[in-house]
Amino acid sequence: MDASLDPSSLASPAASSYISRLTSLSLQELEAEPTELSSSSAQLTNALTTLCYTSYPTFLSLHTTTSTLSSSLDALSSSLSSLLSALPNLESSARTFAQDSRSLLASRRKAALMLEHHDKLHDVLSLPLLLETSVRNHNYSDALLLAQHASTLASRFPSNPLVQSVKADCDARVHSMLAQLLRVLHEQAKLPALFRAVGFLRKMNVLSEQELALAFLSGRSAYLDGTLRAVEVEKKGIDSEGSVEREREIYARYLKRYIDAWREGVHDVVTQYTTIFLDRPHNAEPAPSELHVLLTTFTTLRIQQLLDLLRETLPLVADPSLLSSLLTQLTYCATSFARVGLDFRAALGPLFIAAVRKGMTREFEDATDTWTRTFESEEASRTRTRSGPSARKKPSQLFLPATTASAHALPTPAQLELIASSPPNVPPPILASYPLLAVYTNALLSTLNGLRLLAPASLLHDLLSALDTTLTRATATLLAYVRSSADDRNNSTAALKAEEMKREEDIVRAVGSVYVKVFVPFVRRALVEGVYGVKMDDIKTRPEMGADLKRALEELQGRLEDGVDT
Fold first, then answer.
1. pLDDT digits (tens, 9 = 90+) for 101-117
2. Do both 220 and 139 map to the same domain?
3. CA 430 – CA 401 distance, rounded (Å)
4. Do 507 and 377 fall within a single domain?
5. Which of 100, 127, 347, 405 has the fewest Cβ atoms surrounding its Cβ within 10 A?
6. Segment Disordered: which positions (predicted)?
């Protein structure tokens, strides 16, 4: 054993393995072992020498590389030490940067998210503008879809302020659409437009069916009131000075226009309301009773409005010819409304009866006023100048035509009998002999001729009573003239010629006689028989008729029989 061998090398695994192998060899193998070892050593030395000779560049390169690697590792170790010493500062700077850039990163993330959902956000933000455009263009279907979409988004994102803001803007536009649809009910519109507006109001679900029906009637009533107010222009010129006939024609024209506008407007509302709210499909439930009540209330109020206007205005028309035309128009109107269950013909009779009564009474009064004014002017002349009979016109000048001032006619019994049997609408010729009586007769006959066009049967006794009242006043006026005429002659100091005085007395007696025996019976008969076709004998069943007139005529007749000079 070589003394230079390190004992510790025998403890290596290779040595341990080799020693274990030696113990397993036989003696011959052990003896041959040194020789094999020497041979193997020589071979290895030879192979190593050959390797060094052939691969020396590799060994040189390996040496250089090993040296470089050693220095690089030293430099790397130094750099790593510097890096480790700089890492705390880098970590601190990184934390500071991350903290400073956190808000910026959040903004960038929001911007990136917004950019990613740009189309969706644009659609949401455009909802109010699109809805407003749809409402402005009356495209209510799209407007309702957009509003529904906004409501859906608001329910899905209740805490999102942007979505809630869009929802609030859309609600404002929807409110504008509601006002626009309700405004359609106040404007001139036909059934299709109204039906469409009510349909969209139903889809909006902001009003119940009863509230919607009430809004419809209110809107159409407002439009109808505007139409009726426009007819007021027909009354232009009434306040200015004009004749009574002119005012009557203006009021009649106003009523005709008003009735036409009222009939068309109310009929349109009734048919439109019935179509929109009351007509239901056969398989649907019937309309609630409240809807029928609303229509009934509307029509009742409108009919009452018309009747109130007629009650106020018809007496201003008064002319039976104009009243007859208005009654025909109103009868046609009521008949057309009867098809929808609104026949108001029964309410027209009392209104026209009152108007005819008032108009005829006024006509009688006007005719009598003309008669009495003649005598009143004579009485005023007598009062102003007490100088004798010449202070006023003589009876011949007052009652007789200028061409026949000296002749006067008295009715004979035969003439009176003929007059009683003559047609009631033909004036007795004797009345033409006295122009003052003829004018009075013509005025009353013109009134009665107008009455023929519209003569309510129930007014016979009232009109006869009104005529008797005016005739009583006319009789009293004539009686007063007879008395004053006698007083003037009795107080006159200027001696009139006996023939002239007798002639004037005869004229007064003749006028009074014609008035009592011809004029009064004729005009009463013209009313009763000529207009109504009723015999005077039948009127006598009411003895209170004409009691005052009878007393006045008896007093006048007695005065004439006793003599106008007494």
1. 888 888 888 888 878 76
2. no
3. 13
4. yes
5. 100
6. 375-395
